[in-house]
Specification:
311 residues; alpha+beta; Diaminopimelate Epimerase, Chain A, domain 1; 2 domains; globular
Length: 311
Amino acid sequence: MNESKKYTYYTVDVFTDQPFHGVPLPVFPDASGLTDSQMQQIANELSATITVFLQPADAQNCRNIRVFSKEKEVPSSIHAIQAASYVLAKTTIVLTSKHTLISVVSTLKGHEQVINSYVSKNDADEIGIVQQTYDTHAAVDYYTPTNEELAAMLSLSPADIGFDNYRPLIVSCGVPYLIVPIMSYTAIREAKFNESAWSNSSAPSSLAQEILLFANNTDENPADFHARLLGPAIAHHEDPPIGGAISAFANHICDHPHVQAGTHVFGIQRGANDARKSLFYVEMDNQQSKDLTIRVGGHAVLMSEANIRVC
C-alpha cells in the first residue's frame, strides 16, 4: 500500500471583511511534491470555483502559484492572488513592516508573470488591506449595441442605460467585456439577460461574451460603484465574481474625457445587499492613455483549516 502524505489547506473568503461573504477559495500554502494530476484531483474533490496551490520560489517572500478549476488548470486571477497573499501572511510569512511585499509567480503555458501584493497590518499587528498592482493595456471598441438594444437584452428600459456622461464601451485587457453604465442600483438588480434580444442585436458579432453593468448608486453601501456580470453563459440566478473585469472597468472609466488625469480611488461592490457581497478598493493612475496602472485591494477572512491525504 502506498504511503500517503498530508497536505494542509485553508479556506478564505476574499474581498470581504465579513465571514460568509466575498468569494470562498481553498489555498495550499505548501503544495511541494504534488503532481499536476494530483492537484487536478484535489481541485475536483474540493469542488470550489478554483483551488490555489503554492510552491517555494527562490526569492524571499515569493511563491510559485498554480490555479486549478474543477476541470483544468487556469490562469491566476485577482481572487487567487488575494487568497494566496492573505493565507501566506496569516500562516507563513512574517509581516516585518507596515506594508510587506509578497510576490507570486505564474508560469502557465511558459509565460512568466510576477504579481506583487502589499499586505498591510494595523497597530495590533492584524492583517489589513491586501493590495495587488497591475500594469494594464486596454483595447477599446466604441461600436456597441444601441441603448434600445441594450435595454432589450437586459430586460430594462432605455432610460435605465447611462449616467453622468458614461457610455457603453467594449473594453479588453486580455478578455473583452461589454461595459454598460446603468442609472441605479435597483435597475442593476432587476436586470435579466434576454438571450433572444442578445442574439438579434449586434452584440454577438463582438468578442465580448459577458456584460458588466455598473451604477454609482449603491443604496446604503459605502462603495462608489455597484457592479454585476450578465451574459449568455451566466445563469439567471448567478452573481459571479467580477475580479477578472476590474482592469477593463478601470480603463473604461479613464476613457471618458470628463475623468481628469491623476490618481483616482474608488470602491466597487458586487452582490445584492441581502446576499453574499464583495468589496474591491481600486486606485488607478489615469495618464489619459491606453496604458493604466491599477492597484486592487481588499480584505479577507480566514474561514477554515483542514488536511487532505494524497497517495
